[in-house]
Amino acid sequence: MDGGDNPVPQTVDLAADFEASGVAEVLRDLDAELTGLKPVKQRIRETAALLLVDKARRSLGLATETPTLHMSFTGNPGTGKTTVALKMASLLHRLGYVRKGHLVTVTRDDLVGQYIGHTAPKTKDVLKKAMGGVLFIDEAYYLYKPDNERDYGQEAIEILLQVMENNRDDLVVIMAGYADRMDKFFSANPGFRSRIAHHIEFPDYSDEELLQISTSMLSAQNYMFDDGARQAMSDYIAARRMQPHFANARSIRNALDRARLRQANRLFAEAKGPLTADDLSTITEADLRASRVFAGGLDVDRQQAAE
Q1: pTM to 2 decimals?
Q2: pLDDT score of 306
Q3: pLDDT tens across 20-70, in order?
Q4: CB-hemisphere CA count at 13 Å for 195?
Q5: Which of 108, 99, 61, 90 shows the shortest CA–CA distance to 306?
Q6: Is there a contact between 175 and 71 (Cβ–Cβ < 8 Å)?
Q7: Cα–Cα distances in Å, from 179 out to 199, 228, 306?
Q8: How many other C-beta atoms are found inside a 10 Å radius of the C-beta of residue 11?
Q9: CA 181/CA 56 separation, integer angstroms
């Protein structure tokens, strides 16, 4: 008996618990919304299995501590890290490991102040907003700047470490960025490495996956490629990958935005009568091949942020 009132169950049905939790829906959404990323999706499923078993153990009265759920997402920009973090927040909420299931995304500027006494309140305010959910720290390695004696990033780091340890039953922290820089960051700040149990690497998308992503992005906005444009997009991906500042799906999204701009200008220049829905919805080969990428130039928004 449990406390003399409620009987402790003798068995559990993990399959039934899986369906009842809504985790299956989260995993289906992840598959539907993100192309590729098989190793990432597998790690998410493994984490879900761990938490389902932990929850089942609790229901049988087996003593257990809350598992450490802080994570590190490493990979190049545009590989889906923010999207996966959002799904992870939903998964953790459905399984009862966070109260709210919301995602708070921040960078160094949201945590570190410019003068003495400014950092602590900024960091604590962010943590207060994130409690009950997931805090996603993008390009986390920028918190640590040992070469600058007047930098206040270390103060934010110390507050984060304390909260990650003392509030791990009410907050999950995901730190993200380039793999090599994150390794250096963890080496310089071993307190983070000891508190992060799950390290998930996000691979770059293949050319074929990026072509599929481009088609999905257009479809979501009621656009489509004609036959020539699809081949042009394939050629664009291969050429763009070889240039600086390539950001996987983000570079593809930027390229499509510029293709739509060219299409709109082409329609205005060429239109001499009524236009059909297909006219307004079709990206042609010319809309893509006008990119400077095909002339060896750089046709890209240079702003980058790890995703």
Answers
A1: 0.84
A2: 31
A3: 888 888 888 888 888 999 999 999 999 888 888 888 888 888 867 778 899
A4: 23
A5: 108
A6: yes
A7: 10, 37, 11
A8: 7
A9: 38
